[in-house]
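pinning this so it doesn't scroll away 📌
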Amino acid sequence: MTKTIKILDVSLRDGGHRINFDFKKEALEVILTSLDNAGIEFVEIGYRNGYAPCSKSLGVAGLCPKDYLLYCQSLLKKTGMAVMVHPQNISQTDLQTLKDCGVKLLRICVAKGRVAEACPVIDMSKEIGLMVSVNLIHISHYSEGGLRASLETVNKYQPDMIYFADSNGSLFPKQIDFLYRTFTQQYPTAFGFHAHDNLGLAQANALAAIQAGATYIDVSLAGMGKGTGNLKTEFFISYLHAANNKKYKLQPILEAGNYVREHLKIGHEPLEMDEFIRGISDLSTAQLKQKKTGDTYQLILPD
């Protein structure tokens, strides 16, 4: 593989959903030090001010208060620190705090039909020197025309990255190939891919995205993430080594992945039928709740 790939680990942010974002200092030290030693470009350490919708109290990685940001910064000597935000939850003061505490990359979570809310946040972030990634979630729910319109709007604000997130883990490699071949050639922005593994296709889809023009790939230790989880950091880096790309060190990644399995008890849980249904029928969590009737499921594709 000759293409230059850059990795962003989302274990603390997406994986935080598995333990209500309650990471103790020992876990943070093991995970962040290992990722830093491995040469990962970016580590996403959580959400600033929570995610939407959310009605419960969250641990430190779900809020990213100042003391948490500074502790994470102290553990990352080479790796860039990233934080995800929802546009409606963030202020200019928040952005400045993130910048002052060492955050390099702001990831803006953008739901379908809500691109306009992200644009002022892009402007404010760039004004203070933050890199910006626009993450379009539930990418499988877009029409080609609708996605093109969103990208036209976003690109006027010149983000550093645009991510397509297969939030339901429902896409096949040929669909990923089509998405990236269609759009990466039309815009100067770097494109990234965020996989979920509901159909067991996270790695195949990531490789399809790379071949079709993606530059940034999201991964997580032991696949820890919402639902069935994400592309496994250790498996993806192992693949890169097999493809003669030894840019990243595998040993510290294995140590961190095994720590997650042993101490956080993530990676051995029973699989849930709901997560397979979401992948098969391309349903968000909210849609699945609406489709369920008692103990049965209506496998209906969204319009």
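📌 and the second one:
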Amino acid sequence: MPVHRVEQDIRLEPDHVYVLTEDKMMITEDGYLKVRRRYHREIINKSIDIFFKSMARSFQENAIGVILSGMGTDGIEGIKTIEDCHGLVVVQDPDTTEFNVLPQTAINKDDPHAILPPADIARFLLRHLGAYNSFT
């Protein structure tokens, strides 16, 4: 799949990977990823929460949030919003992470659909998306 560093607004395309660049914030809106710079007053980085919340609002039950290795809590509010919209939440097994604070917090605060090592996350998502596509 093509990988894009998102530095400006870009239209979402199937089977593409989008990576947020440093010091940016991103939301989904009307089929686009919309980017703005992260302001200095935003001392606590909430870029994952902001993105996951916008994704949940945009895609509702089709939203998928994946929490991987990390030290903070950015993403926890976002996965709750995804769950509230009946989307899918997958968390990396904390035993397979370099930094397990974020995955463990996600497990403790939420009830993810799956807790898996990285290789199994990919297989799980492919199975989930295959089953979903057979109904649409």
